[in-house]
Amino acid sequence: MKKDILSLELNELCSDLENIGEKKFRGKQIYEWLHTKRIHNFEDMSNLSSALRTKLSEIYCINRINVVRTLESSIDNTVKYLYELSDGNHIESVMMEYKHGNSLCISTQVGCKMGCNFCASTIAGFKRHLTVSEMLLQVYEAEKNSGKHIDSIVLMGIGEPLDNFDNVIKFLKILSFEIGKNLSLRHVSLSTCGLVDKIYELAEYKFGLTLSISLHATTDEKRNEIMPVNKRHNIAELLQACKDYIEKTGRRISFEYAVIHGVNDTHEDATRLIKLLKKLNCHINLIPVNEIKERNYRSDKNALLSFQSILIKGGLNATIRRTLGADIDAACGQLRREYEL
Ligand code: SAH
């Protein structure tokens, strides 16, 4: 099988080339074609000899992902892309426009094994991890299709990024490398349902990214019920890992809390949340739960506002996430579900 060239870091490409008797600087030229000029066809790499281009095409493939549907919101400028991967699987990315620039939400896996019971991405189960190139191509294709520059990236689409740890780390390295997209990891957020061992591992990289933790409940009993991952790593273990992460990286953590009426939005929940998070350097993002057809969860505006005000009075930094792309079901996982049914 041919090697996936878009998933290689520059040093890997250079040493491959040396192994086949080429000069190392060729690696840099090819890398620039792929990641800066984004030419994904060896034939068009005009500063390489035709013999080298032929040799490259024998060893490597240049991966592709194809847009099969584009949904544009008529409320805001949110655009959702449904991509077909080279093996026929589907994933989604969502492009959102904010005051500070364009943000792209990308997928990290085809499906998800985590089983959070309010989430559309996990209902049909897990198929496979995304490769490094499939994550990068979501960024490159979105820029090409929209003609817009992407200023920030969130790993909050389909999948659990820390469950695809090695590929995600490599993706982040290539994304922030000076040749190519060259995006500071300060402009990247990574969201996890709480794979504690991987949070400790991630801390060691000391990336500048924002770590988001999907908390969504304030007792183990409730969290076990809506997020099965909690049976593996409970709230206390998760918060201990967060504390370690903040100490090691010096970065504030962001907690996600999908507010579900009658499930996790009582006065007691708010009080417990204050107790849990008061001592952490963090921010709380309240998300009105996105209704999916498989569950009858819903959010209640008044309950949400009073939940927020209790948190603020308790000294927490809590904001309500703006809902973008409501008319195109912009929450990840929903389009793929419809398409594959
Ligand atoms: N697996 C990662 C990232 C993907 S989900 C994680 O769990 O963090 C991105 C965010 O959307 C998570 O906070 C997730 O819990 C939340 N989410 C999923 N389904 C939702 C829904 N129906 N309503 C509101 N938020 C949801």
Folded structure, characterized:
The chain is of the alpha/beta class and 341 residues long. The protein folds into two domains: 3-61, DNA polymerase, domain 1 (Orthogonal Bundle), CATH 1.10.150.530; 66-340, Aldolase class I (TIM Barrel, Alpha-Beta Barrel). The chain has helices at 10-19, 25-35, 50-59, 132-146, 165-176, 196-205, 220-226, 235-249, 267-277, 301-313, 334-340, and strands at 3-4, 60-61, 66-72, 79-84, 90-98, 101-105, 109-111, 126-129, 152-155, 188-192, 210-214, 253-259, 282-288, 318-320. A hairpin with a 5-residue loop joins strand 4 (79-84) and strand 5. Helix 1 (10-19) packs across helix 2 (25-35) and helix 6 runs parallel beside helix 8 (235-249). The longest helix is centred in the middle third of the chain and has 15 residues, at 132-146. The protein is elongated. The site of S-adenosyl-L-homocysteine (SAH) has 17 residues, from strand 10 and strand 12. Residues 114, 116, 118-119, 156, 160, 191-193, 214, 256, 258, 287, 289-290, 292, 331 line the site of S-adenosyl-L-homocysteine (SAH).
